[in-house]
Amino acid sequence: MATTKTDPKAALAEREAGKSYEGLTRQQLIEAYRIMYTSRRVDDREILLKRQQKIFFQISGAGHEAVGVAAGFTLKSGYDWFYPYYRDRSLCLALGATPYEMLLEAVGAADDPNSGGRQMPSHWSYPKLNIVTQSSPTGSQVLQAVGCAEAGRYFAAHPEAAKQASADYRQFKDVIFHGDEVTYVSLGDGTTSEGEFWEGLNTASNRKLPVLFVIQDNEYAISVPVEVQTAGGNISRLVAGFPNFHFEEVDGTDPVATYAAFTRAVAHCRAGSGPAFLHAHVIRPYSHSLSDDERLYRPESERREEVARDPITRTQMFLIREGILDEKGINQLEKQVEDDLQAAVDQALEAPLPAPDTVERYVYSPDLDPTSPAFSTQPAPATVQAAANDGKKAAQPKTMADLINATLRDEMQRDERIVMFGEDVADCSREQYLEQKLIKGKGGVFKLTSGLQAEFGSDRVFNSPLAEANIVGRATGMATRGLKPVVEIQFFDYIWPAMMQLRDELPLIRWRSNNGFSAPAVVRVAIGGYLTGGAIYHSQCGESIFTHIPGLRVVFPSNALDAAGLLRTAIRCADPVLFLEHKRLYRETFGRAPYPGPDYMIPFGKAKVVQPGTDLSVITYGAVVPRALQAAQKLEREHSVKVEVLDLRCLSPFDWEAIAASVRKTSRVIVAHEDSLSWGYGAEIAARIADELFEYLDAPVRRVAAKDTFVAYQPVLEDAILPQADDLFQAMKNLSEF
Ligand SMILES: Cc1ncc(C[n+]2csc(CCOP(=O)(O)OP(=O)(O)O)c2C)c(N)n1
Ligand SMILES: [Mg+2]
């Protein structure tokens, strides 16, 4: 009886009120539309502002809005982690970023929370929301996201490691983690062509990591269509063989279907079942960016077809059709968005700009200065047990390789946040062989990490795939989360696949996020020649390429004691460090020392006078130090010329005061290095001496370095190419006679 009395309209409304759209409520759908519309209108306003020359760049999220909202609704803001790309405006809005904050980045305001005016618009970074600073190189976020997920898993297994500790970088590196957190990473269809994307899939799959890969496929990478970019034209088909993944392919202009796909994908990741791959087909109605005019390569017909799938109009029609909002309701919502946006624009245009004298802020940590006396301690060899099993042995002189190994061991003992990986660094990946004591274990091709996996476990010391970007990219993601990765590049000659990460990512995280994030990882690299038979691809130097990178500390010890002290500083400091270990020096008799104890540190940027002199200065480092000493001693014996040899030890920063003091004293100077001459490290030092110490000089500044070739295999060629003690002797003699 009751039903006959019910008004049919009211019954429908009642039914629909309870209707669920793949789990989305009507209120959530209205909210989804509000965010999507806001996202589009921020793009429109930015485009206008760019045309008015009030901002300087624009790239839109137009056509991608439904994906961001679905991601934002299924993931947890400030709980999960986000490595988005520039089309993720609606995601950032859904997670809690405001149009005003976005506009601050567009105008380059001082208070821009993303970068303080340092990055282009749509380069998101919101520390409070766990949205990690992103860059412009397409795809470089992928391996970092993998490292981020690994860090979350590590902290869940080692909760003690997450605790703050004083006296090192941990004091300034808060860790938050959740056992079931998910890491989101997104990229465009074109970016799936990058090698780092495949390296990321490989590791996420192999380690069953909770990474949600989101491909926003708008069928174009600027002007290059997807069928040219991707074999067969569909990335989903290509990745289908990766184990442990959950795969979704969805119309990313449909918010409800996309939400459903995200719900399933996120559940898979959160349950710890492995990564997910969500391939969303979207549109790109506004050209690639405001610097691009797609009419040059897309006909009107194709563009019209795309417009018919616009997620904004589609969602609006859906809300009306489903009776969730009527036209009046839509108008009201849109007007509210417009009014709020206008206020945000007005406010952003008035926002103070960053002061030009702040540009050098946050290149390095503002909290912990590794050049400071806090990093200066005395050796304490007698107290040491860690380098060997008994104190007597520890007091014996040890090689550089031994002391690096001992330092790594003691630091791992002291700091549970340290993890080590790279090619062959583990003792044995097939742990059972170690456990059954069937084998001794490898521990690095130079054995520098020997015994560390056996002692600290396979989740702290492990082998990476043979992929250098993978090593540095993951380390960057881990360090961003608060771990201290100390990774190894097996040979300097093979560092180049990691160059994007080393030049554009690791050292920039702090500066580009205006101190919002930091990534103090240590990258150990075996470098250098004088090997006899090393040849081109096992003997190169090339350090000046890295000293040219702001934000990266570059260290190059010449002896065992310095290696131990500087490595400890590298590990405990809050900046990323490239730690160059000369292969020829690993096991030389020169420069052996007893282990200096578990707290021995040398501050960065402090040179050492390895031989005092009054007549001529040789500024050098690395394997040239023993050669320069040999030449200097011969010159003194034969010609009574007293040469001062200065070992820089640290190349960035370098010890200008020590150089200046030596040159003022001797008035003659040679800068010597193993790397080739032209555009080498010595050029900078020589230029600075010529500039600032001209009045102290009695002779031209000379350089001794390798020939401008590569290093050859046959020893007679290698000898001719690399600077020898004889070359140094001749140069010193000539200059002393000038
Ligand atoms: C490593 C790198 N190469 C080239 C560029 C220049 N670039 C910027 S975006 C882009 C196209 C990206 O296309 P896609 O991945 O499909 O993303 P979409 O912009 O279409 O969303 C290119 C070539 C870059 N930023 N980084
Ligand atoms: Mg694209």
Describe this structure in words.
The protein is α/β, with parallel strands linked by helices. It contains 28 helices and 19 strands. Strands 9-8-10-11-13-12-17 form a seven-stranded mixed β-sheet, sandwiched between helices. The chain is elongated, with a radius of gyration of 30 Å. The termini are far apart. The model is unreliable at 1-5 (pLDDT under 50). The structure holds thiamine diphosphate and magnesium ion.
- Averaged pLDDT, please? 95
Number of strands: 19
End-to-end CA span: 117 Å
Order of adjacent strands in the largest pleated sheet: 9-8-10-11-13-12-17
Major sheet attributes: 7 strands, mixed
Q: State Rg.
A: 30 Å
Low-confidence stretches: 1-5
Number of helices: 28
Shape, principal axes of CA atoms? elongated
Question: How much of the polypeptide forms β-strand, as a percent range?
Answer: 5-15%
Q: What compounds sit in this structure?
A: thiamine diphosphate, magnesium ion
Helix/strand class: alpha/beta
Q: What level of helicity do the residues show?
A: 25-40%
